[in-house]
Amino acid sequence: MNTIQLNAPAAVHEIVQKLEGAGYETWAVGGAVRDALLGYRVADWDLTTRARPDEVRRLFKRTVPVGIDHGTVGVLAKDGVMYEVTTFRRDIETFGRHAVVEFADTVEEDLARRDFTFNAIAWHPMRAELRDPFNGFDDLRAAKLRTVGSPQERFAEDYLRVLRALRFAGHFVMQIDPPTWEALQAATEHLPRLSAERIREELWKIFTKTRHASATLKLYESSGVLRVLFPELQAVINLEKETGVPLWTHTLAAVDTISLKRPTLRFALLLHAVGAPTAKVKDLKGNWRFIGHEVLGARTAEEIMQRLRSSNADTEEAVHLIRLQSDLFPPDASDAVVRRWLVQMRPERVRDFFRFRIAHARGSGASGADLVERWRHAHRVMLAHPALAAGDLAINGRDLKALGLEPGPRFGEIIDALVVRVLDDPTLNEKDTLLNIVRTELRS
After folding, report:
1. 379 and 238 within one domain
2. How confident is the model at residue 100 (pLDDT cuts 50, 70, 90)?
3. From the CB of residue 439, how many other CB atoms can be counted at a distance below 10 Å?
């Protein structure tokens, strides 16, 4: 019997003590135990118990039926945190993600239905005991990813485990056990059976939980997942092999430079070169060029994100960055040029645009220092809150009516002309000044 003390919250100990005191064996399980064994800070502790859901609800005053049909009850502890307590379960029949389960009487039965050995370790807070029937702790220490039981069966039960395996291997820097790797590769052909939402959520976990997303993305490539789920990205890899232009290599490096708090930006960087395979041409010197790849890439990126059923907001942001990724004012631009650029870029997206460009530069081995200077220039201009659109002008349609002008197409023409004037000279954006321009120059 292995014993080890993990740093679980007092509430975990209290919940276990209460259940055990009532005669119900209870253990901490899953990712919390795995991460605690690796020395990571654990935010969410899950418990499994021999008590049935009704018994859990009877023992604790404050509970939430978060998944009663699956045996899960949320227990609201004294620390204000909800801890999920799930009755021991065993699989009766498995097909895809929809397994038929029934309640079990032992923790070993519960652990046997889990995916990977390092997720099939139970820890008893009161006795500091590890229950590890599949040697997951040894696999953790050896940095080895291995399925519980037959890898073919584990993946066939839920093909999302293919993507989970690759994410875990990349995140924890693990080698995948050869039999597990072989079964994983064979299972990739079945990934299109998964719903778009589950694929997107798994991809998003790479961007929000794994600092070095490139490790997992490389495994996506070598396992065949990119070829099956994202052929547009596989085409970028093939292009790099064909031309020697390191588009995919630089893409992976760029994604790693972006914060975990900006998953949409990381996704945009991942997709930024998807238009290049279609746009490739050779110039007169025999060098490869990818003219117009930004527009082509934006269309392809939109198709990918719609296929994944991404939110409209995420799709719009990523597509906007990809389409305009090469549009930037020159280093010696005047403030007026920067203001005109802001109209197209949209001020609310300028920060992410520069994050995008600087990440791309650093992924290519450049310092990005010139981009930092241009960001400072753009920031100075934005701090002045320049008028960039009709709504920013000091006059509006009512003012034009007061001058005796009739509403119609001419209104829009006048407003557009004023926006152009104010972009060149922000000091003109005063009501009297603009009205005088209309009277003397634009009225006819």
Report:
1. yes
2. low
3. 11
Among 366, 386, 406, the domain-final residue is 386
State which residues form the domain around 196.
Answer: 144-207+216-222
Q: How far apart are CA 109 and CA 90, in angstroms?
A: 6
Q: List, in order, residues 6 or more apart from 439 with CB less than 8 Å away.
A: 403
Considering the domain architecture, whether residues 157 and 108 belong to the same structural domain is answered as no
Cα separation of 315 and 264, whole Å? 8
- d(CA 180, CA 149) in angstroms, rounded, equals 10
Q: Residue 326 has what DSSP assignment?
A: T
Same domain, 257 and 133: no
**Average of pLDDT values for 32-37?**
95
Tokens 């547009």 — which residue? 232
Write the DSSP symbol of residue 193.
G
CA 94 vs CA 154, 158, 348, 379: distances in Å: 9, 8, 48, 56
Distance from C-alpha of 289 to C-alpha of 283, rounded to nearest angstrom: 7
**Co-location of 366 and 414 in the same domain:** no
Cα 58 to Cα 53, 346, 410: the distances in Å are 9, 56, 74
| 3-state secondary structure (DSSP) of residue 144 | strand
Residues 371 and 243 in one domain: yes
Number of domains forming the structure of the chain: 4
Query: Which residues on adjacent β-strands are paired with residue 27?
Result: 48
pTM of this structure: 0.89
Q: 247 near 288, Cβ under 8 Å?
A: no
Q: Which structure tokens are listed for 254?
A: 């760029």
Average pLDDT (374-397) is: 94
Length, in residues, of the chain: 444
Confidence of residue 97 (pLDDT cuts 50, 70, 90): low
Do 336 and 234 sit in the same domain of this protein?
Answer: yes
Beta bridge partners of 122: 131
